[in-house]
Design brief:
two-stranded antiparallel ribbon; single chain; 179 residues
Length: 179
C-alpha cells in the first residue's frame, strides 16, 4: 500500500500530490515489522507508562510548601521543640532520659491507668547509661487535645507531667512557662 505525499494549493485549497512514498501498516510497525521483516525498535528512554498510559506519578505538592509535612511530622516537631526547651531549662538533669513518640500504645492500659494512656515512662535498671525512656503517644494526645480550648498548651502539659514524674518533682516546679 502506498500513500502519497501532497501539498495544498494556496488558490484552490486542493491537495496536490507530489510524490508517492511507501507506508507501513501502523499495527505492524508497532510490532517491529518493516517491509515484512522483523526489526528491533529502539528502546524508549525515560519514564515508562503504566497500562493505562498515565506513567509514573510524582509528588502532588513540592517539598517547599507546608502541606508536604505530615501530621505526624508536625506533632514530632511540637514535642521536639518542647523537649529542646526543657533540655535548655533543666540542663543535665535530662541527659539520662530517652524520649520517643509512638502513634498508639502497643499494649492495653495497665490496671492503674484510666482509659488510654497519653504517655508512659519505662524505667531501666540503674547500671544503664539511660535511667528511663519516656514515651508519648501521638493519636491519644491529639484526640484528647481536640477537647481542650488550647491544644498546644495541653500538649505542653502532657510533656511537663511526664518529665516531672520521671524526675520525681512537681510539674509546677519544672515548667518553664511558669518560671
Amino acid at each position: 500500500m502506498e500513500r502519497s505525499n501532497y501539498t495544498v494549493c494556496p488558490h484552490t485549497s486542493s491537495r496536490l500530490f507530489t510524490e508517492a512514498i511507501p507506508t507501513v501498516s501502523l499495527s505492524l510497525a508497532r510490532m517491529g515489522f518493516v517491509d515484512g521483516q522483523r526489526k528491533s525498535l529502539p528502546r524508549r528512554r525515560g519514564k515508562q507508562r503504566d497500562r493505562h498510559g498515565r506513567g509514573f506519578r510524582g509528588p502532588v505538592i513540592p517539598a517547599s510548601v507546608p502541606a508536604w509535612r505530615t501530621r505526624a511530622d508536625i506533632f514530632d516537631d511540637v514535642i521536639a521543640w518542647d523537649l529542646g526547651t526543657y533540655h535548655r531549662h533543666l540542663g543535665k538533669r535530662l541527659e539520662k532520659y530517652d524520649f520517643a513518640v509512638l502513634d498508639v500504645p502497643q499494649t492495653d492500659p495497665a490496671p492503674w491507668e484510666d482509659g488510654v494512656p497519653l504517655g508512659r515512662i519505662l524505667p531501666f535498671e540503674r547500671p544503664a547509661k539511660i535511667h528511663a525512656r519516656i514515651l508519648f503517644y501521638r493519636m491519644p494526645i491529639l484526640e484528647a487535645a481536640k477537647r481542650e480550648p488550647h491544644p498546644r498548651l495541653f500538649i505542653h502539659q502532657v510533656v511537663t507531667n511526664h518529665i516531672a514524674t520521671a524526675l520525681g518533682e512537681n510539674p509546677d516546679d519544672i515548667d518553664y512557662l511558669l518560671n
